[in-house]
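Researcher: Re-running this chain for the archive, since the previous output was lost when a drive failed. Same request as before.
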Amino acid sequence: MRAALSFARADLTDDDGWAEAVSGCTYVLHVASPLGVATGSGRDAYVRPAREGTLRVLSAAVDAGVRRVVMTSAAATTRPPLASGLVSDETRWTDPDDPQFDNYRVSKILAERAAWAFMAGKQTELATVLPGAVFGPVLAADNLGSVRIIGDLVAGRPRFLPRLGFWVVDVRDLADLHVTAMIAPEAAGERFIAAGDFQWMGDIAATLRTGLGPDGRKVPTRRLPTTLVRLLAPLSADLKPLAPLLGRKFALTSEKARRVLGFAPRPVSTTVIDCARSLIAAGGR
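Model: Regenerated structure tokens:
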């Protein structure tokens, strides 16, 4: 009897193991991208493994005759220039040299561009899913990525809230969308933004304070003026890449994913509270 689940080892920075990993596969979901790169590392430390790793996955999938690859990109790959007034949708391609983007987001932009260029004319199909800020229940308290924002708030950090906002998507809804994009015939050759509602950090903090009961007692409530944050941003490794986003709510639509694939994100309050409770249970606050 064939096992329902098996494992293979492969590395985005190495050619070895990819042929074996995709052998016999009908579909491939490429969800990995470098995130925890050492502070101070240059742009290439993010871009090279993201772009070259993507091409390794795609090359192996094409050689193995995989029917379709679904790649996780980022909603930022559709974001227009600051103050342009334009809406982010799947028809837009972000300029990787726009100074609003940090190295991680540049790596997502260039990796997705490389993916579409490589797959042009190939028999294997490609679809990409472009999530906003991914929150929701965690399996472990390490390598938290964007979920660290929730963990920090529960722990009382930062003491004062900057006016930063996020288009939130629940990790469970994102996983479901990947599966739908994998099997739906109409998803072939398409990009799909995955985002629910927009939330300011202050809104998220308020949800945590009211929804967690005693576990939310440390969540900060005081706001930090945007002008002051902008003055402090150059001095902080965490704030510096976020400075262009202070006080800005970008127009974004996930209408295509809703219409074509039936994407129906759950309420942000549910996502945030479930995320926090899972972090508390895992010891990640």
